[in-house]
Design a protein that fits this description.
94 residues; alpha+beta; Alpha-Beta Plaits; four-stranded antiparallel beta sheet; 2 helices; 32% helix; globular
Length: 94
């Protein structure tokens, strides 16, 4: 079942976000297995992430792989509590 994931990374900058993607080998041409869509938004106090994944398991596997990169770039990983929910519906322009 596809899931939507939202998370806030307090204090993170766009430069740190870009470095995490570089270090993690993540780009539009090199997406993690199961990632359908990804959005990152700068907020007043950090970054907000919104993803669609094919399954919760694929998201969890990706996070296990990416956590060392988070630690390397951000130092102490901020208290990031992703919210995950089953996707009910999607409207999107093609």
């Amino acid at each position: 079942m596809a899931v939507a994931v939202t998370a806030v990374i307090p204090g993170a900058t766009t430069d740190q976000y870009d470095e995490i993607n570089r270090e993690g080998g993540i780009s539009e041409s090199s997406l993690p297995e199961g990632l359908v869509a990804h959005y990152a938004v700068k907020t007043e106090d950090g970054l907000r992430i919104f993803d669609i994944w094919q399954s919760r398991e694929q998201f969890d596997q990706f996070m296990e792989r990416l956590m060392p990169t988070f630690s390397k770039v951000l130092g102490d990983v901020p208290q990031m509590q992703p919210e995950v929910g089953e996707l009910h519906n999607v409207f999107a322009r093609k």
